[in-house]
Design brief:
Length: 519
Amino acid sequence: MRRDLYAAKGIILSRGVVMRTIVNGKPIDISAITGNIKSVKADLLVVGMFEDKRFEPLLRVLDRALKGEIGKVVKAGEFTGEFGQSAGISSLSALGARKLLLVGLGKRERYNLEILRRVAAYGARAGRLLLMKSVALALPTPKASATETGQAAAEGALLGLYRFVQYKTVDKEKLKELQHVTIICNKNDVKELTAGIGEACKIAEAVNWVRDIVNMPASERPPKRVAAEALTLRKFGVKVKVLGRNEIEKAGMGGLAGVSRGSAQEPQFIVAEWRGRGPTVALVGKGVTFDSGGLDIKARNSMTTMRGDVAGAAAVLGALKLSAQARLPLRVIAVLPVCENMPGGKAYKPGDILTAYNKKTMEIADTDAEGRLILADALSYADKLRPTAIIDLATLTGACVVALGYEAAGVMGDAKLVAKAKTSGEATNERVWEFPLWDEYKEKVKSDIADVRNIPKGEGWEAGAIAGGAFLSNFVTKTWAHIDIAGPSWLPEDSFYATKGATGWGVRLLYAMLKKWKA
Ligand code: BES
Ligand code: ZN
Ligand code: ZN
């Protein structure tokens, strides 16, 4: 099942090209290395073991060098190889590495790229926790190419090392960052593995950029700041156009104009485009920089994390950045309605009727169902560009979190697009789960006084995630899928390489979909 990770004989090490990237504002070097594991220099050598406790040649070499210490730890039952377990062992100066960390890989037959991402993150974070400078990872290759393996290991480490600490001024000495990550591999794999590491650096930079944007305090990241972040993509050949309040009103974007009226912050309608040669894919992202609920104001507990309501727009920017950097043979257009939902004196009110960009009228039954109103404009704008597909990402409903928790986003819409999202979701572990969009649900969002109403008839909460999708379906005529990311885009706790708060969810999913796009 696995190739050898290393060459046990000889002492010569050979290192692939060293990739330098930035995590948490600090440089970090990451590279592949091959040769005798005993001479790999690092503060911490992370070695994986399955729960069948079978000693790989690699473990045998290390165990011998450490005079049977690994075997003793296993025999004593201090380490079982279960996933999530670990045991530290001193290297007794018998190795190039100062310390050894055994990490559990779980069941051999269940090992895959996702487990690799997770243990790589675990190892890198363990090293940092011990205030070390360098970590070397000796982890098995799953059933995958060397490029995918390198990418997964590096992605796990670089994403797992992210933390939002820009605002910390005390305890700085505890915030030392790791400086080197080395991935130990088979002699024949160095080149491919390095290519994967390079790809992972780009991906982690994009995801961590998105995490920073979403984690930032809402008062420091109004719509104009989001537009400024979008403008930074110009250096990758992305064309960026930004409309302000007047232009939004003049264009007839009544949803965005209406929702933003109660806020002192000017709304922005951002259109950013990577013009590769190929089919056009429109990515639409909900960009509510803060969702107070508006006049239907939220309870305090549900408002605390609402700076995260910009996650859809930010994830789309991340995917666009990667598309441009990779010069994908696609025309990728990001359409981002960005505003704040506030209950100011000019705020839109329950009972108001807003007219969307496609001229459909929308009855406001709840000012807290604001995302779909600004997406109505953005979707109909995207639709007019006649793309082959439209995908929207939105932190649209709490109901989606009730249904799926933090493990998956809800998806609905065109069957083929949904299938693409499912496939790429499995590959990246940014998974989606489908909800139906039957006509009966669309009936529920029809209004008695306008074309549509923004919460369904009934008590308003029934099938909440689907009601959101059903509402949005009124603003597209082309192939479209809606992804509700309210759950996975913001986590209450760290979860493997996904970190507490903003996760940047959707960047890897969208990029994977675009990379393998076939009309
Ligand atoms: N931004 C929220 C949805 C949300 C909830 C995102 C929890 C992330 C975590 C959205 O604008 C909202 O308030 N939706 C309402 C819809 C309801 C009024 C039909 C909700 O979910 O309660
Ligand atoms: Zn809301
Ligand atoms: Zn919202």
